[in-house]
Amino acid sequence: MAEAKAKAVVITGKNLAAQIAEAHSIPKKQAEAIVSDVVNGIVQSLTKGEKIRLAGLGTFQVNDRPARQARNPATGAVIDVAASKKAAFRPAKELKEAI
Q: For residues 13 and 40, is the Cβ–Cβ distance under 8 A?
């Protein structure tokens, strides 16, 4: 029988803020506000079509996906898929090596 997969640990914004608060001896509320501001800044920049590069982490950017045709897997019918935008993340070399 196959081995059961280990569950991945999920770190939330609050968990991250708690780690930052402890590491820098600041109140948790202040750390939560900082994490929230960073996330909001990334979202605002991506909304404007800007690219965000964080050294040691990677690059966030928006990629355009052109309109295309696809098949409905249930019926096999050809359908048109509209053009869309996709948020993308490309990890930095340091992150790739650390993982």
A: no
Cα–Cα distance measured from residue 33 to residue 87, given in angstroms and rounded to the nearest whole number: 23
Q: How far does Cα 64 stand from its chain's mean position?
A: 17
The pTM for the full model equals: 0.73
Q: Which domains does the chain have, with CATH numbers?
A: 9-49 (no CATH), 51-99 (4.10.520.10)
User: What pLDDT is recorded for position 8?
Assistant: 85
Pick out the chain residues at pLDDT < 70.
1-4
Cα 86–9–85 angle (5° rounding)?
5
Structure confidence at residue 6 (pLDDT): 75
**55 φ, ψ to 5°?**
-55, 135
Dihedral angle, C-alpha 48, 96, 33, 85, nearest 10 °: 20
